[in-house]
Amino acid sequence: METRADRGRVEYGVRVMGSLFITSALLPVPHGFATRSGGVSEGRLASLNLGFSVGDVRERVEENYRRLSAAVGAPLGALHTVKQVHGDRVLQATGGQRTETLRPQLGDADALFTEQPGDWVGVSTADCVPVLLVDPEGQRVAAVHSGWRGTDADIAARAVEALVARGSRPEKLLAAVGPAIQQCCYVVSQELAKHFASRFGPDVVVARGDEFRLDLSRAVVLTLRRAGVKVAHMDVLQDCTSCDSARFFSHRRDSGRTGRHINFVVHRF
User: Residue 171 in contact with residue 229, Cβ under 8 Å?
Assistant: First the structure.
């Protein structure tokens, strides 16, 4: 699998609040994959926890969002998110506001896109694969949450199809695949490993005796390729959220007792 992970990955927002998020050099609009640094949450949720349902103090999470908004340079009221359900539904985000109040979630979905200038869309992760899509010609952006269930349901392809339905051309889309749990840490059942190997090919599974490890990011890349996105237009950041406890929350590493990241892209061409 071709990646650009070692070419041009940069820290973004570092001059504002510290290393709040990392970016891909491929995408021509403001975007980022949040780290756990630069916030005010404490303990196991330290410090940039962006999840409201993980036992954090709401005021701290709200302050974390304000810090992220300041680092991005986009109004918090223009950020759209969804209630993620590990499915294949894609929603269109419209009507962002230029306020500093966080908007309610749009609905049940695992991907969303916008054509509205100034708006931004984001998905939450703590091991699952985040994908950011940019159409530089049609000026559309999308964010995708792809856990194993969503990957099996081809959520990344559904997002591409949603953009194509609005006039985008898949071969012109740019895709950044963000930090996620990598195959070094993602041990799965033999049944799930066989299922993914049958759907995406043997390269997505590493077998060591009776232990099976899943390369979920590779499966997502294959999904994007099948949907018409060019390999040369993809950047795969190979950071492992489970390995790097200093920078990332990890649901699996921390047995579910962990924070959440936001992975976002801004409609600003």
Answer: yes
pLDDT tens column, 109-135: 999 999 999 999 999 999 999 999 999
Quote the radius of gyration of the chain (alpha carbons, Å): 17
What ranges in 144-189 are assigned the alpha helix state H? 148-152, 155-165
Whether residue 189 lies inside any domain: the answer is no
The whole-angstrom separation of Cα 250 and Cα 240 is 9
Sheet holding 187-188, edge to edge: 187-188, 211-214, 205-208
Specify the 3-state DSSP secondary structure of 237.
Answer: coil
Query: 206-229 burial string, b = 16+ CB within 10 Å, else e?
Result: beeeeebbbbbbbbbbbbbbebeb
In this prediction the pTM is: 0.94
Number of compact structural domains in the chain:
1
pLDDT one-digit tens code per residue, 38-65:
999 999 999 999 999 999 999 999 999 9
Determine, yes or no, domain membership for 156: yes
Q: How far apart are CA 74 and CA 238, in angstroms?
A: 27
Q: Which residues contact 267 (CB under 8 A, 6 or more apart)?
A: 29, 114, 115, 116, 117, 118, 119, 120, 139, 140, 141
Q: Which residue has the tokens 């994959």?
A: 33
Q: Does some domain include residue 3? A: no
Domain housing 254: 10-182+217-266
Helix axes 216-226, 190-200, angle to 10 degrees: 30
Q: Does some domain include residue 117?
A: yes
Q: For residue 94, report the phi and psi dihedrals to the nearest 5 degrees.
A: -140, 160
CATH number of the domain that 222 lies in?
3.60.140.10
